[in-house]
Amino acid sequence: MPRTHISAETDRTDLTITREFDSLREHVFRAFVDPVLYVRWQGPRRLTTRLEFFEPRTGGSYRTVQTDIDGSLHAFHGVYHEVSAPERIISTFEYEGLPERGHGVLDATSFEALPGGRTRVTVHSAFLSVEDRDGMLHAGMEEGLDEMYEQLDELLRELS
């Protein structure tokens, strides 16, 4: 059963993703900002992630390229507006494979320490339009997030 919850209200341009991890907040946060760890859990298993640049700091930016098993490429880029360890990351995200540019998403990711050494990650994503948000949801977002977060779970078990 997936442990990732996505909340998206009809006719709104935002959504919220919530997932709990059996790991300390500092470890979960580190997996979001350490380039060696980050590439190990980003994207579904069939993809290999390469960082062209990765500056997870306030004012930094990133560009990632993922290669599918069929050789097709998927690139993403964005900027970091705020990186406050280990509480919060505010960043943008834009998939470069869309027919037109300018369909970015603003993500506010919070890391909440829970009892028993657990962590709740909450991502609040703001899209430019309902169509952009719904397009992401209908493109397999939930399945992709579940697989990605399963890989993060595996990585966090190694770090514990």
Could you describe the 3D structure shown?
By secondary structure, the chain is of the alpha+beta class. 28% of the residues lie in helices and 41% in strands. The chain is built from four helices and eight strands; from the N terminus they run ββααββββββαα. An eight-stranded antiparallel sheet has the order 1-2-8-7-6-5-4-3. Strand 7 and strand 8 form a beta hairpin. Helix 1 crosses helix 2. The longest helix is centred in the last third of the chain and has 19 residues. It is globular and about 45 Å long. 17% of the residues are buried. The model has no long low-confidence stretch (mean pLDDT 94).
**Spatial extent as radius of gyration:** 15 Å
- What is the H/E string? EEHHEEEEEEHH
Structural class: alpha+beta
N-C termini distance: 23 Å
Number of helices: 4
In helices, the fraction of residues equals 25-40%
Number of E strands: 8
The biggest sheet, with number of strands, parallel, antiparallel or mixed sense and barrel status, is:
8 strands, antiparallel
| Large-scale geometry | globular
Strand residue content: 35-45%
Low-pLDDT runs: none
Averaged pLDDT: 94
* Strand order of the biggest β-sheet: 1-2-8-7-6-5-4-3
